[in-house]
Automatic annotation (TrEMBL):
InterPro entries tied to this protein: NB-ARC (IPR002182), P-loop_NTPase (IPR027417), Sig_transdc_resp-reg_C-effctor (IPR016032), TPR-like_helical_dom_sf (IPR011990), Tscrpt_reg_LuxR_C (IPR000792), WH-like_DNA-bd_sf (IPR036388), WHD_MalT (IPR059106)
Domain HTH luxR-type: 786-851
Name used for this protein in its record: LuxR C-terminal-related transcriptional regulator
Taxonomy of the source species: Bacteria, Bacillati, Bacillota, Bacilli, Bacillales
Keyword hit for Transcription regulation: yes
Length: 854
């Protein structure tokens, strides 16, 4: 089945200005300066000439690289709007097909920013580009306006947008106004002067009316070109002078004037206009099919020549549309036809548009007649994607849930965008419609998902998804999203199972975007498990996928942020800082993941004030207002500032509520164990840590296990003689789970007592450790010296010490390291000072004992 988003090509056509149009010299000269601006806003009421002035400018200035988009109310969602934006750029971007393929697969509205970043990057390499967006007043959706504002703010200076609108744009334009990059053409400038009004009547409409009468008509219309045309047409169809009957012209008189025009036409012309008014655009073939005739071309040309508000979209292909004002009136007349006639024409129009490949228009016709079941069938065939699903908002839920596959996809789409109320509403309708019958297991899962129940549902429910008649791409994306949920529930085995399902689908599709999703999810799981080597290998694969597919370049920042997490867990702080520098100038990347990594880096470097400021930024995100993510932030915050310690008391009831609902994650339990310790509930803390250790051992969650073991060492370390054997065993186990992946982060805050235990482990149990564990122990011993004043040797001092240990003289050391003799002596003095020794023998002995050298 064809699942791709459909496009109405006529929305991307620059309207052909009518013959003998009035040259608005002043406005045309103003538009000729558009290259000096980033944003141009042409604002005026319906019929004020916005489209005409801009289309005539395009025609007269072929040297400008301009694309055109005409919007309607169906484009008022982020997916539909940006699909047309992307399509309009085919002439500029060779890789546009790849970007559109990625775009058709995204479920999260937040992912739109990545698409836009790719678009911005590709457009920056092109020559001057101007995009005219007509009827922008239809765009009221917050997400569309946010993304439009982002695109305008960050796109290069060679890209500019012209908005034709009846209202002010709903996004912020103050920056462009202040910087002098906003050009505005308002209602007053669009009004016809007396001379322009006369030219319009005499040359454009070719009506022989005296100058003084035209002047009076233009005064009555107040310079409004649409109103002037209506008066002129009404006058031409009547023997009396309409000026005697109409004292004031405003939007409330449009219906009256239009009626006079319509009733003055021949019955055949009137019938044609009324019945074709349901068409968003038309040509001879469409009209022939709709009306069951063979010769509508002559009628179209005749009506066009009568200037009846018919706009020529493509002169060569003979494609037209009605002006919105006139079409709205004609549709009032259409609604007075017999219901059966209306339905028959709408259904026929849907068939005709479907034959043309215009899914969007097909669906709109069916929805107008409330043919919901038919509309659902078309959406199922053509529109299983976010743009297609947006049409479902016009269909009653009781009808949608009859198609369980569609209901599930819609729930999942809303869930991905955190629109939980809509999810609940759909699920309630599903259960109400079951009338006692057991619904699909997948709906039971969705219900648990939305109501945040920790339901351990067998993942065999995925077999239901496997049997659904949906595209492999959609299935794969659903599996990837499910893996994140299962991972969050710490159901690692199940998360890997569904990712394996997604991987099998991807191998058949060879889809890079789906592959990125699978690898990203795997990286998250492997990092949390502590499989850092495997995670690093996966990130390298991600970088390779991005390099192979330039249209995915916006995802590179995600890879940099992700691999930073590995560096931080290994305490490779220089590498972590370099990795974050790759994305710090990319505003698209400066979200929660970036700030969280930055906060960790600041904390590990000891910059507590900066870490506190970053925590405050993180707390502005909705995510960290959610109790589910509180512990991940609080575990750092309580070590940064005393004020956060007070939040531990607020965490206690949250923990208890989660415990009752069995929604606790290991991270929550670890934080609660610290709270119990702070409150002096030692035995309760130890019991909780034992439970954590048992769970994390079972599922090989190395990092969390290490943290639990080390916290227990901290508690028992105060009674070294009593718990010596157990303490050494705990450290031995922690090192065993740490050494292979070089996990150092949990050891960063080791106290002095634990350092003593590490030395004891070296002295008494060194023979029990394998070679890798021994090396890691030496690293820990050196790590313990980092916080001691004047102890840590510089890289050059360490090099000198290693050569010194071979018995080399100062001269030989200088020759081997290519440094002067005086520099060697300086380094040796510093080494003696930092190690608190007075000669070479003592220096080598102490450095060896403390694991600084081997």
């Amino acid at each position: 089945m064809k699942r791709e988003v459909q496009i109405i090509s006529t929305k991307l056509m620059t309207p052909t200005p009518r013959k003998n149009y009035v040259r608005r010299e002043k406005l045309l000269k103003k538009l000729e300066t558009l290259c000096d601006y980033k944003l141009v806003v042409v604002k005026g009421s319906a019929g004020s000439g916005k489209t005409t002035i801009c289309s005539s400018f395009v025609k007269e200035n072929p040297e400008f690289s301009i694309t055109w988009i005409t919007l309607d109310k169906e484009n008022n969602n982020v997916f539909s709007f940006w699909y047309y934006m992307l399509e309009s750029m085919r002439v500029y971007i060779e890789e546009i097909e790849d970007i559109i393929s990625v775009f058709q697969m995204i479920m999260h509205k937040d992912d739109m920013k990545r698409i836009i970043v790719s678009l911005i990057n590709l457009l920056s390499k092109k020559d001057d580009i101007t995009i005219i967006i007509d009827d922008f007043h239809y765009i009221t959706d917050v997400d569309v306006n946010k993304t439009m504002e982002y695109f305008l703010k960050h796109s290069s200076e060679n890209v500019r947008i012209v908005l034709l609108t009846r209202e002010e744009p709903k996004f912020y334009v103050g920056d462009f106004l202040i910087s002098g990059r906003l050009l505005e053409i308002g209602e007053e400038e669009l009004k016809l002067s007396a001379d322009e009004g006369f030219q319009f009547i005499r040359h454009t409409l070719q009506m022989d009316i005296k100058h003084e009468i035209v002047h009076g008509m233009n005064m009555l219309a107040e310079g409004w070109i649409g109103g002037l045309q209506l008066i002129a047409l009404a006058r031409s169809y009547h023997k009396y002078d309409c000026m005697q009957h109409v004292k004031v012209l405003n939007k409330y008189m449009i219906a009256y004037l239009s009626k006079e025009i319509l009733e003055a036409l021949e019955e055949e012309e009137k019938d044609f206009l009324v019945k074709t008014s349901i068409l968003s655009y038309f040509n001879e073939e469409i009209c022939n099919e709709l009306l069951g005739k063979q010769d509508t071309k002559e009628m179209i040309i005749r009506l066009f020549q009568k200037h009846l508000f018919i706009i020529n979209l493509d002169e060569d292909r003979g494609i037209y549309r009605y002006h919105a004002i006139f079409q709205q009136f004609l549709q009032h007349s259409f609604e007075r036809l017999e219901v059966e006639t209306q339905k028959k024409l709408r259904l026929r129009a849907a068939e005709v548009y479907e034959q043309c490949g215009d899914f969007e228009e097909c669906i709109k016709q069916l929805l107008e007649m409330q043919c919901y079941e038919a509309a659902l069938r078309k959406i199922e065939i053509h529109g299983q994607n976010p743009q297609g699903w947006s049409y479902l908002r016009h269909i009653p839920l009781t009808c949608i849930v009859q198609n369980k596959e569609m209901a599930f996809q819609l729930i999942f789409y809303h869930y991905c965008n955190m629109e939980f109320e809509q999810c609940t509403e759909i699920l309630n309708t599903v259960y109400e419609g079951e009338s006692g019958h057991h619904p699909w297991e997948v709906f039971v899962f969705c219900k648990a998902l939305i109501e945040e129940e920790n339901l351990q549902l067998d993942v065999l429910f995925i077999d239901e998804i496997e049997d659904m008649d949906i595209s492999d791409v959609t299935k794969a994306i659903i599996y990837v999203e499910l893996s994140f949920f299962l991972w969050f529930q710490e159901r690692i085995k199940d998360a890997l199972y569904v990712l394996d399902k997604a991987s099998m689908l991807e191998k058949r599709m060879k889809n890079p975007y789906v592959k990125m999703g699978i690898l990203s999810s795997l990286c998250q799981i492997k990092e949390d498990l502590g499989d850092l080597k495997e995670c690093e290998r996966l990130y390298n694969q991600l970088f390779q996928v991005v390099e192979q597919h330039p249209f995915l370049s916006a995802l590179k920042v995600t890879c940099h942020i992700g691999i930073t997490g590995i560096y931080l867990k290994r305490l490779q702080l220089d590498e972590a800082e370099k990795s974050l520098q790759h994305v710090q100038n990319d505003e698209a990347a400066l979200g929660k993941p970036y700030l969280y990594n930055l906060m960790e880096l600041q904390f590990l470097k000891g910059d507590k004030q900066q870490a506190k400021e970053t925590i405050q930024k993180l707390q502005t995100f909705d995510t960290y207002q959610n109790e589910a993510f509180l512990s991940s932030l609080l575990k750092y915050a309580i070590h940064v500032d005393e004020e956060y310690v007070q939040q531990l008391d607020q965490f206690v009831p949250i923990y208890q509520q989660k415990n009752e609902k069995k929604k606790l994650r290991t991270e929550d339990k670890l934080l609660y164990a610290q709270i119990l310790l702070r409150k002096g509930h030692i035995q309760e803390s130890l019991q909780l840590l034992d439970d954590i250790a048992e769970f994390t051992r079972k599922y090989k969650m190395k990092i969390l296990l290490i943290e639990a073991l080390l916290l227990k060492v901290t508690i028992l370390g105060n009674e070294l003689q009593k718990y010596k054997r157990e303490l050494l065993n705990l450290l031995r186990e922690a090192i065993h789970y740490s050494y292979e992946n070089h996990i150092l982060l949990p050891y960063k805050r080791l106290d002095k007592q634990t350092q003593v235990l590490l030395m004891l482990l070296k002295e008494e149990r060194l023979q029990d450790l394998n070679e890798g564990e021994r090396e890691f122990l030496y690293v820990l011993l050196q790590l313990g010296n980092h916080d001691k004043e004047n102890v840590l040797l510089s890289n050059r001092e360490l090099e000198v010490l290693k050569v010194l240990a071979t018995g080399a003289s100062n001269k030989k050391i200088g020759e081997q390291l290519c440094i002067s003799l005086s520099t060697v002596k300086t380094h040796i003095i510093n080494i003696y000072s930092k190690l608190h020794v007075s000669n070479r023998v003592e220096a080598i002995k102490k450095a060896t004992e403390e694991g600084i050298i081997q």
